[in-house]
Amino acid sequence: MQAALNIDGLAFCTLEIDGASMPPAMNLIHEIIGFEGFGIGAPTMRLSLIDKEGVLSKQLNLKDGTRIKIRVGKDASNAPEYKFRVFGRKRRRMAQGSVLDVACIYDSPEFCAGSFSESFEGTSREVMAKIASACGLGYDGPKSTDDHQVWLNLNTTRLAFTEDMTMRAYVAEDSCMYRMLTLDGTLRYKNLFEVLREEAIGTISHNTSGGDFDAKEVEDGSVSGLYSHFLNYGQDLYIPMQNGDLQVQKLNVPIQGDDVPVNADIRQTVKARVAYAGYDYGTAPLDGFNVHQFYEQAYYQNLRFLSLFSERLVVLVDSHTGFNSLKCVEFNQADPENQANSSFDANGKYVLGGKTFRIKHGTRYSEALYLYRPFTTG
């Protein structure tokens, strides 16, 4: 028999440790939490398992490097497998017995841990696909990017290399590139503004009907003030050219409104700030170029546009959504006292920037979805 959490219509879960299924008693599970999202290089998972007799740490060989597979889905027929390795553990003594707290990281040492010295010629889209294949990962990326060059990985992990490459990646003057490894083992590489233009994969509703999932709790907020201070959106980029001139690079924000999201009283002051790029040592289409034509512009553009995604919603649901990060999700909330009024200012399309799933005591399931979209004020 195999231990399985099966809450009809809400979620399904099985757990396998180093090739051996968990004993058929879900009360061994104190808590399971899995993470993916912005700022997380690779998916992680935390297991809290009740181990009264020492079975998990001895018979199932639960130690550093142990492989763990967990299937999580809506039901048994639609439960993708997530693969992890134990990264560290500790034991707590509690009233119900010993509890093992196990920290896990996604099982792809070729991507997360190994250091490589390698070079790739092509666009960032082509190189990202090659790296995903070399690491045994799935791939989901754009149709094309305009950044052909020789990309050098100088003895770093492919996780770090792909992050650096993404910051220099370029599609167009209104692109904002990001890459993320998700729980299902897919390396996703997207233009975030293009994601917002896609059809939403689902709708989350709060205090109203008609959505695919009902939100139990919603938290909305903005950190535009912080990002304005450090990376203010009125800032220009100066690029020293070989002939001694300065090329001035400005951004064309591809969203409604063209003012920076800062207080009007200080807007003129912050617009005086500038940033300087590295010296133009030879970019395409010059002969013998080292990097692509938009190499400096891409870094400036991606960094600044990422900072525009300062409006955030955290949405709690109590069933498995099946949503993948870096997809478009729609949110709809109505006035709890007048559900006919759905003019909540946070309604609309968002980029799903990450999610957390939580299984408590083997009987309760919940997901927290982290939704982001660019925010400006007119």
Structure description:
This protein has 378 residues and is an alpha+beta fold. It folds into three domains: 4-107, Baseplate protein-like domain - beta roll fold (Phage tail proteins - horseshoe like beta roll fold, Roll), CATH 2.30.300.10; 199-223 and 310-356 and 364-378, Elongation Factor Tu (Ef-tu), domain 3, CATH 2.40.30; 227-306, no CATH class. Helix content is 17%, strand content 40%. The protein is built from eight helices and 23 strands. The chain has helices at 55-58, 109-112, 124-134, 158-167, 192-197, 224-231, 264-270, 295-308, and strands at 4-7, 11-17, 20-21, 29-37, 44-50, 67-73, 81-94, 97-106, 115-122, 138-140, 149-157, 177-181, 186-191, 203-206, 213-214, 217-222, 236-240, 246-249, 274-276, 311-317, 328-333, 348-360, 364-373. The protein has a 15-stranded mixed β-sheet that branches. The chain is globular and about 75 Å long.
Question: What value does the average pLDDT take?
Answer: 81
Largest beta-sheet details: 15 strands, mixed
What is the number of strand segments?
23
Number of domains: 3
Write the CATH architecture name of the largest domain: Roll
* Low-pLDDT regions: 256-261
Radius of gyration from CA coordinates:
23 Å
Question: Would you give the CATH topology of the largest domain?
Answer: Phage tail proteins - horseshoe like beta roll fold
Q: Hey, roughly how much beta strand do the residues contain?
A: 35-45%
Q: Tell me the helix content.
A: 10-25%
CATH class wording of the largest domain: Mainly Beta
Helix and strand composition category: alpha+beta
Distance between the termini: 61 Å
Q: Please report the number of helical segments.
A: 8
- How would you describe the shape? globular
CATH superfamily of the largest domain: Baseplate protein-like domain - beta roll fold
